[in-house]
Amino acid sequence: MVKSIELQGYRPQETEPFMNERQREYFRRKLAQWKLDILRESQETLSALQSENPNHPDLADRASSEADRAIELRARDRQRKLIAKIDAAISRIEDGTYGYCEETGEPISLRRLEARPIATLSIEAQERHERNERVYRDD
């Protein structure tokens, strides 16, 4: 029997044991809702793109429409990648690794997970990663 966890008005607290059952369920639901919102928005965009008349007699209108379509398609691609990250985060919740830094193994702060529930690195590890990127990028 699956136990129902009450989360109405719940916010994870630093005083609780890290990634206890309630926190895991809270983040699982948060991620699932985020994914649903993205999918709903994508469907609305797809419907709008399909209903749009691509045959604009004016060249400027056609160019503008094609530019808008390209922007929308790039946004959809970013959202597709985001959904993959959300799915990966949900998998980490299921296997017990969610909320722990992939680099150090230390817990990621709850504030960071609230702001970026797909985070895989602690703030310190992320900052180190970004500093290394700046040092080694090809400018």
From TrEMBL:
Keywords: Cytoplasm, Metal-binding, Zinc, Zinc-finger. PROSITE patterns: ZF_DKSA_1, ZF_DKSA_2. It is found in: Cytoplasm. A zinc finger (dksA C4-type) spans 101-125. Residues 96-131 form the Zinc finger DksA/TraR C4-type domain. It comes from the Bacteria. GO terms for molecular function: zinc ion binding. Residues 23-93 form the DnaK suppressor protein DksA N-terminal domain. The keyword Cell wall biogenesis/degradation does not apply. The keyword Zinc-finger applies. Residues 47-66 are annotated as: Disordered. Belongs to the DksA family. Interacts directly with the RNA polymerase. Transcription factor that acts by binding directly to the RNA polymerase (RNAP). Required for negative regulation of rRNA expression and positive regulation of several amino acid biosynthesis promoters. This is RNA polymerase-binding transcription factor DksA. It comes from Enterovirga aerilata. The lineage of its organism: Bacteria, Pseudomonadati, Pseudomonadota, Alphaproteobacteria, Hyphomicrobiales.
